Amino acid sequence: MAIRIHYKITLKNHPPVFGSCDRPHGALHIVETLPEDELVKVEASMNVPLSAEGRIFMNGYQSWTYSTEHSRVGRTHGISRLPKAVVRHYGLDRYGDYNWVSYPEKEGITHGESYCYFREGEDFRLIASLDEKPGYTLFRYDTASHELRIERDCAGLRCGGKFHAFDLYFAHGTEERVFDEWFAALGVKARTQEKLAGYTSWYNRYEDISAQSIREDLAGCAGNLQPGDLFQIDDGWEVNVGDWLEADGAKFPEGMKQAADAIHAAGFRAGLWLAPFVANRASTLYREHRDWFLKDEKGEPWRAGCNWGDFFALDIDHPEVLGYLERVFDRVLNEWGYDLVKLDFLYAAAPFGSSDESRAARMIRAMELLRRLCGEKRILGCGVPLMPAFGLVDYCRIGCDVGLDWDDKPHMRLAHRERVSTRQSIMNTVFRRELNGRAWLNDPDVFFLREDNLKLTDEQKYVLVTVNSVLGGVLLHSDNMARYGAVAKAHYAQALRNREAKNVRVEFDNGLTLSYELNGRRMGVKIV
Fold first, then answer.
1. pLDDT in tens, 320-366
2. DSSP result, 137-175
3. How far apart are CA 14 and CA 38, in angstroms?
4. 142 is an active site residue
5. Calpha distance 313→345 (Å, rounded)
6. DSSP H or E segment with residue 261
7. Is 385 helix (H, G, I), strand (E, B) or coil?
8. What is the C-alpha to C-alpha distance for residues 62 and 128, in angstroms, rounded to an integer?
């Protein structure tokens, strides 16, 4: 029996538009001709039955957003449990979808953006967006009523003429089949299938880096990494976030070109971290160009979060901002010679839309800008809403930052869905695995094999490195490899071999297990 989809388009000054249609297998485009007006709400609903053993996946807003399968009694946690003063002080509502999505915080109610699926054993029912430009597609499921509600994030958008209320794709079958069909319908292919391995400076030294520390870690990688691997300098090379044209002279007195030259001389590709759409309060950019920033309802620069003691979002429509970004990327990629840029905190480019453009369309435009500025150089995207980056970045983070422990302190687990957590990072690697090789190559964040400056057990380190190497397309660490003993070297060699794993399966009997075939042997690791 066909399943009916009922939809409603609410306008500010005209009567609502109602309609219904049957759900197909394949693409569904709901297009209505609307009068000149302002959109208030665009919503649809359909019935999706789910058994007591069935599972629900709702994709979270951006890279760091915790996104896992839920049971029938699961819920999507927001930040309403936190005191408003805490949320305001730390800007916790700026990292996710909290400003424009309501969180009922009720058992059995889950939500996500751009795609979702319902799983019964190995049978998947995928419901996904084909076009986010008219507005992010928001899915919300209530297990009590079996109702799936679908909304467009387009309130306040001016309409007139043909409007794509929804562009959806429905697929039913195996995991491989439904995701292959969706990406074929999208016309999106990963820009590269070349897997990356290497080093990044962040998760050991964090911002405490210098030319000397880079030389030390580069020497440790020599003889351990392979020629052509990535050696990435992360945050801490600049004086302030936003001021990207010069290095911190106290840390890198010979500049960033010299650092890239040293990396190349060692036989590695050079990577550099930037957050191109933001600047912190102490930056020269913020102090001298306040008019370059997006404004909030009070006319003040839009605060995008609390890192670095507050940071603010640049306006990509300001011509001087575009000129500045062109100079930055020309210097980093052409003058300094970096081969890859890790571009972080990208969500800040589009915290809201306008009457002429949805926030999703603005985010897509921001990603297209970055692709143009980087040309054919490699981009590792991070902190970015996922679907706007499909096919535009070469590699992409698909989880939050890992931590030096397993799951942070208990009180931190009440924080936003974008918090630091090794456990949550692993779960995102598992449940966003289908994007790997289709949208880009997945970056599951780093693993650790070192013994110092770390609180993970040997078992936890083994789970992390195995999941990352089997399911990811990027395999980075932050260790000084010169200190690796025989056991760590053996684990690293095994991680490289794991990248050739075949017949990978995620199994849910008696917990969560990752299994795979390697050199004719069936292997596995229990995650939870």
1. 999 999 999 999 999 999 999 999 999 999 999 999 999 999 999 99
2. EEEEEETTTTEEEEEES-TT-EEEEEEEEEEEEEEEE-H
3. 9
4. no
5. 10
6. helix 255-265
7. strand
8. 16
Query: How deeply is 442 buried, as exposed, middle or buried, from its count of CB atoms within 10 A (0-12, 13-18, 19+)?
Result: buried
* SS3 (DSSP) at 396: strand
Q: What is the DSSP letter of 480?
A: -
Specify whether 97 is catalytic: no
**Tokens (6 digits) for 330:** 């020309």
Q: How far apart are the C-alpha atoms of 446 and 420, rounded to whole Å?
A: 13
Strand order in the sheet with 502-507: 502-507, 513-518, 521-526
Q: Give the max Cα distance, the chain.
A: 72
Tokens 């990396």 locate to: 263
Annotated active-site residue in 229, 315, 401, 479: 401
Specify the pTM. 0.97
Q: Assign residue 391 a region: left if phi > 0, alpha if psi is -120 to 50, beta otherwise?
A: left
Q: Are 91 and 311 in contact (CB under 8 A)?
A: no
Q: Over 60: is that where the pLDDT of 447 sits?
A: yes
> Is residue 216 within 8 Å of 479, Cβ to Cβ?
no
Residue whose structure tokens are 């397309």 = 473
**Per DSSP, which regions of 185-299 are E strands?**
196-200, 230-233, 269-274, 278-280
**What is the number of other CB atoms lying within 10 angstroms of the CB of residue 524?**
15
In eight-state DSSP terms, residue 2 is P
Strand 147-152 to strand 26-47: parallel, antiparallel, or no bridges (unpaired)? Answer: antiparallel
**Per-residue pLDDT reduced to its tens digit, 8-51:** 999 999 999 999 999 889 999 999 999 999 999 999 999 999 99
Catalytic residue among 167, 229, 315, 344: 344
Name residues whose C-beta falls within 8 Å of residue 81's C-beta, 6 or more positions apart in sequence.
105, 414
214 is written with which tokens? 């880079």
